[in-house]
Amino acid sequence: MKYHLISLGCQMNASDGERVRTVIEQMGYTYTEDETEANLIGILACSVRQNAIDKVYSKISKWNKWKNRSNLITFVSGCVLPSDHEKFLKLFDIIFQMKDLPNLPEMIHQYGITTANGVQKGFDAQNDNISEFWNVKPDHTSDFEAFVPIQNGCDKFCSFCAVPYTRGREVSRPSVEIVNEVRSLVERGYKSITLLGQNVNSYGLDKKGDEIDFPELLRQIGNLGDDLKTEFWLYFTSPHPRDMTDEVIEVIAQYKCLAKQIHLPLQSGDDKLLIAMNRKHGLEKYRQSVSTIKRLIPEATLFTDIIVGFTGETNEQFENTRKAMEEFKYNMAYIAMYSPRPGALSHRWFDDVSLDIKKSRHHILTEDLKIHSKNYNSTMLDKVFKVLVKGTAKHDGYLAGLTEGRINVRFLSTDESLIGQFVDVKITSAANFSVEGEMITIKEGVV
């Protein structure tokens, strides 16, 4: 028996998919890249943008046609809004929330002997039994990069966001489990580990003093790195500017294994628009955090998320976002055109910024980003950087990787045994979003 799995959207879905693979493969299924060969096909949906949901409907329409000629079971999970949940009941054989993953074998076993609509769990925005999901050991798709979930859900209720309605309220995973999982990964040779959550720097706040907070979690992992004396980079995503404290930045500056790269979502550079977005912070709070990062970790790279064309965004407000990008000089920004999400508060508001204007603003901001990224990359010239080799580059004869600051690097080599290893690369040229260099030495895994 074979299965095929598609994960859409963010790193959280990719991480969840690794646990889905474990459960399915324990049932005796083997993975196939070719969905036409599969007896079981699943998709982890993303409700952040409409085009991702449109892809789900497109896929299931095709898969259901295949049922006329093959024995096929389909399922959907991931970030699913209640409105889509109701529609999916009639399209997929099985639908469940990720917290119910341990019950998937039973659902597959029951399929065909229950209701006409297949097997489904009722939609429930609570995360009461999420610990059962975390207890599933992930089937990592890489042997040198890994995700470690530390919480699920979100309490912020940004007006544009569907996450509180798809993943529920914030629940923190026990810190002992997190640290133990990180330790196991490092001992097995993993070089890049990313802590995942919808709002990682509010970690532990839902436990009312019964759990450590996010700075202490980072400190414990930092101490672990010092004790193990094994070289690895630990990242986290995503933090919320409202909860970003100086202590978090101080801890990152203190420990070698805590990567000097910070992803801090801005969304907009205009205070009035931030209020409309219900971001619960202003530009000055954001500016203070960036100032602390620059002061304590001057070598750190800064990434962000930005939405253009949010309901009511004026030309002046967009220009304020351009000014913020000029001020903060991001190394990378993930720029999205706003699309209303059912269930989110802003879905009730008239989407009054035309698609043409959204596209124009997206293009302008991307061009601004190219300038700042290229300027930073040019400062890397003639310097040597440690690079984690991730694979072959698009250009024949080259390997590609990332610096600690997650700057894309390519260098001349065909030695694929270097993939998953650290190497030293001297930078010889710089482009908008990447650099090129020459390999100097291979780094050993021990400091």
From TrEMBL:
Q: What InterPro entries does the entry give?
A: Elp3/MiaA/NifB-like_rSAM (IPR006638), Methylthiotransferase (IPR005839), Methylthiotransferase_CS (IPR020612), Methylthiotransferase_N (IPR013848), Methylthiotransferase_N_sf (IPR038135), rSAM (IPR007197), rSAM_horseshoe (IPR023404), rSAM_sf (IPR058240)
Give the UniProt keywords, A-Z. 4Fe-4S, Iron, Iron-sulfur, Metal-binding, S-adenosyl-L-methionine, Transferase
Name all Radical SAM core domain ranges. 140-375
- EC number from the UniProt entry: 2.8.4.3
**Among its keywords, does the record have 4Fe-4S?**
yes
Pfam families for the chain: Radical_SAM, TRAM, UPF0004
Top-level division of the source organism's lineage? Bacteria
The UniProt entry's coiled-coil ranges are none
Q: Does the keyword Transmembrane apply?
A: no
Q: Which residues form the TRAM domain?
A: 378-441
- Write down the top EC class of this protein: transferase
Identify the residues that the record assigns to the MTTase N-terminal domain, covering every copy.
Answer: 1-113
The cofactors required by this protein are: [4Fe-4S] cluster
Task: Name one molecular function that GO assigns to this entry.
Answer: tRNA-2-methylthio-N(6)-dimethylallyladenosine(37) synthase activity
User: What job does this protein perform?
Assistant: Catalyzes the methylthiolation of N6-(dimethylallyl)adenosine (i(6)A), leading to the formation of 2-methylthio-N6-(dimethylallyl)adenosine (ms(2)i(6)A) at position 37 in tRNAs that read codons beginning with uridine.
Q: Give the protein's recorded name.
A: tRNA-2-methylthio-N(6)-dimethylallyladenosine synthase
Taxonomic placement:
Bacteria, Pseudomonadati, Bacteroidota, Bacteroidia, Marinilabiliales
